[in-house]
Amino acid sequence: MLSKIKINEMIRTLKDCYPDPYCALNYNKDYELLFATRLAAQCTDARVNTITPKLFERYPTLEALAGADISELEDIIHSSGFFRAKARDIVGASNMLLNEFAGRVPDNMEDLLRLPGVGRKTANLILGDIYKKPAVVVDTHCIRLSNRIGLVKTKDPVKIEKELRKILPPNESSDFCHRLVLHGRAVCTARKPNCAGCCISDICKKVL
């Protein structure tokens, strides 16, 4: 495991390399990020960003989504994969948001996890990006890089979240996870990590 000094050095270095951490999913409303993240399961963010403009143009409000025709909704989101389950979750979550949360996406983990199709990754993304709360978003990039770098020794997302919460400053955790995604896409890729071009190569444990 990395020392606290090395972890802090890594956080500072990634900040310098990626000064503007961001979520790659496009959205304008809180619930749009919620549903875009649901669509991103087993699908690329780039693909989702081609689907959501049509989706939210056809259904511009939560009320419209709650009353959507499932077959029509499935057609719109078909290319995201697992479209039947995703369509069912979007309609179900829209109804729950309207009926139980006055049309607002919840600002706490417990209520977010009650929504159909929402797991800890999605809930953490909402808490971090919408509500600016301490959050640890454990996606495929986070799993791969946190193990390679030497932050954790497990592939279990819940355990990774727990371990990262222990070692990351709360005010840095959400942006740190976004930076891991950016670094994972640009440098530390799944197939061929570019260690020679990596800004944290002197810190990384290189557990490949």
Task: Estimate what percentage of residues fall within beta strands.
Answer: under 5%
Low-confidence stretches: none
In CATH, the homologous superfamily of the largest domain goes by the name Hypothetical protein, domain 2
**CATH fold-level name of the largest domain:** Endonuclease III, domain 1
Give the fraction of residues assigned to helices: 55-70%
User: What is the alpha-carbon Rg in Å?
Assistant: 18 Å
Largest sheet: none
- Strand count: 0
Average per-residue pLDDT, rounded, comes to 96
Structural class label: mainly alpha
Q: Write the CATH architecture name of the largest domain.
A: Orthogonal Bundle
Number of helices: 11
Q: Termini separation (Å)?
A: 15 Å
Order of helices and strands: HHHHHHHHHHH
Describe the structure.
The protein is mainly alpha-helical and about 210 residues long. It folds into 2 domains: about 5-20 and about 135-195, Endonuclease Iii, domain 2 (Orthogonal Bundle), CATH 1.10.1670; about 30-130, Endonuclease III, domain 1, CATH 1.10.340. The protein is built from 11 helices and no strands. It has helices spanning about 5-15, 30-40, 45-60, 60-65, 70-75, 85-100, 110, 120-130, 140-150, 155-165, 170-185. Helix 2 (about 30-40) packs across helix 3, helix 2 (about 30-40) packs antiparallel against helix 6 and helix 5 packs across helix 6 (about 85-100).
Please tag this protein with its features:
Endonuclease Iii, domain 2, 0% strand, 208 residues, Endonuclease III, domain 1, 2 domains, mainly alpha
Q: What secondary-structure arrangement, pairings included, does this model have?
A:
Elements: H1 4-17, H2 30-39, H3 45-58, H4 62-66, H5 70-77, H6 83-100, H7 109-112, H8 120-129, H9 140-149, H10 157-167, H11 170-186
